[in-house]
Design a protein that fits this description.
Layout (H helix, E strand, L loop, with lengths): L70 H4 L14 H10 L5 E5 L5 H8 L5 E6 L2 H18 L8 E5 L14 E5 L3 H10 L13 E5 L5 H8 L5 E2 L2 E2 L2 E11 L2 E10 L4 H11 L10 H5 L15 H28 L5 H14 L8 H20 L4 H7 L19 H41 L1
Parallel strand pairs: 1-2, 1-4, 2-3, 4-5
Antiparallel strand pairs: 5-9, 6-7, 8-9
Helix pairs in contact: 5-6, 9-13, 10-11
């Protein structure tokens, strides 16, 4: 397993997540640490949209806290030609994940171009290609490259940076022989569009790429992992599978960032899984489990000392996922409430459910009420999927009604919308359970580690 940046002196896990408790929802992590150690990351600010309950956004702010890892912990030094105050901790971590001897690196969406310049002057790559779709950004990157060259010794400088104006990876060509693509600071949708435009699995400019280093917003990391792990995606070179081999958490300017790195799979998905299991990472299944997608295959296997910010990430991920789940479930519920299914059909469906459960005896009133509600939901979902009440009656061998039998089963939202909200609510509920379990385990591990340090 690729470890995260090692701390010079271990810091304890965050002890508290500031979150709103609401009736009927999971408890949120509370301040329960009795350790004498104090945490530097214990206040989280969730930003919500007041206008639309479904438009919940978590910016993953770490309010009032310094950048992390600290410069002392990572032995921070700005590369030659980069002003020290311009080379941030996040760029340092990105460069560290890219590694040494990276070959040809393309920074797509380069902005000011400092990462590409720092990779080149720091000797981490043979060539850096800095691409941006904004002409002013390209001009700024070019100016920074000229300053870096002058600072490092003019024409004798080892700087090899090619700054290009272009629409993402479309500015690359086969002759570049790009080895690494870096995409940082954009949302999941834009990032995936950039990666797909690179034709990573075909004969295009991305054919030579063997490594991806991605820095999406923290809330978008799940979507990026899901895209990377999608083994059903095929191309001219066969299954386009990417194996996540490094993940880091970084705080910069009070924002929590996720860095995800992946290498191109060189074997079948199952062979990759076997290799990952032997090295201590991975889920042990050719199909990644939910924890790999939601938390990350490397992060979920990290100890509190390997990833001191993991508790922060899990706490905020939990809060955001609960809100998103509740919003999706509420939208689906409002739509289903508009469907009036005859009680007689619900009773028949509840009886069928009882038979399917093995005809249990001595059931409680609560159990029967829950089964009746579940039977009603089953029928509502059938109607949402396009079945009519007479279709359901015929399936139950019940007497059908005349014309207009569906007049009391009108759907106010589209069937596709309701089905999507329902699926999303169920998926997010599974994610909530996974995150909650991981957070509990991580906080327990932190308390044990803190106690062990006190004893020793």
């Amino acid at each position: 397993m690729a470890a995260t940046l090692a701390a010079a002196s271990p810091r304890p896990q965050p002890a508290r997540v500031a979150a709103t408790r609401r009736a009927g929802r999971e408890p949120t992590p509370s301040s329960s640490s009795s350790s004498s150690h104090s945490s530097g990351y214990n206040t989280f600010d969730i930003i919500r949209s007041p206008s639309n309950a479904r438009d919940v956004r978590a910016r993953f702010r770490v309010k009032g806290e310094p950048d992390a890892p600290s410069k002392e912990e990572i032995g921070w030094n700005a590369p030659p030609g980069i002003p020290p105050n311009a080379w941030s901790v996040r760029m340092h971590v990105l460069a560290d994940v890219i590694g040494d001897d990276a070959g040809v690196v393309a920074d797509v969406g380069c902005g000011h171009g400092l990462l590409a310049i720092g990779l080149s002057t720091g000797g981490r790559c043979v060539k850096a290609i800095a691409i941006d779709a904004s002409a002013p950004e390209v001009e700024a990157a070019s100016a920074n490259a000229r300053k870096a060259r002058a600072f490092c010794g003019g024409d004798a400088c080892a700087l090899n940076v090619d700054v290009r104006l272009g629409n993402g990876a479309e500015a690359l060509n086969v002759a570049d022989a790009t080895n690494v693509i870096v995409v940082a600071g954009v949302g999941a949708k834009t990032m995936i569009n950039i990666l797909e435009a690179a034709a990573l699995g075909g004969d295009g400019p991305g054919a030579s790429v063997e490594r991806l280093v991605l820095n999406p917003p923290a809330k978008d990391a799940e979507a990026i992992r899901r895209w990377l792990m999608d083994s059903s995606r095929r191309n001219a070179r066969g299954p386009s599978v990417w194996v996540i081999d490094d993940e880091r958490l970084v705080v910069e300017n009070e924002q929590l960032h996720v860095v995800v790195a992946a290498r191109r799979a060189t074997a079948t998905p199952q062979e990759e899984v076997d290799a990952a299991s032997a090295s201590g990472s991975g889920s042990g299944s050719a199909r990644p489990d939910l924890a790999d997608v939601v938390i990350g295959p490397v992060l979920r296997a990290s100890s509190p000392e390997e990833s001191p910010l993991l508790g922060c990430y899990l706490g905020q991920r939990l809060e955001w996922t609960v809100d998103a789940r509740d919003a999706a479930a509420a939208a689906a519920r409002r739509a289903r409430d508009a469907i009036d299914v005859p009680t007689r059909l619900v009773e028949i469906r509840a009886f069928v459910r009882w038979e399917e459960a093995g005809k249990p005896e001595n059931t409680s009133e609560e159990w029967r009420a829950a089964e009746f509600a579940a039977a009603r939901e089953d029928l509502e979902l059938e109607i949402i999927s396009g079945a009519s009440l007479n279709d359901i009656r015929r399936r139950f061998d019940a007497e059908t009604a005349g014309d207009g039998d569906d007049g009391d089963a009108k759907i106010r939202a589209s069937a596709d919308d309701v089905a999507r909200w329902t699926r999303e609510a169920r998926r997010l509920n599974d994610a909530v359970n996974v995150i909650w379990a991981a957070l509990g385990y991580h906080r327990t591990s932190s308390a044990v580690d803190a106690a062990r340090r006190q004893i020793t």
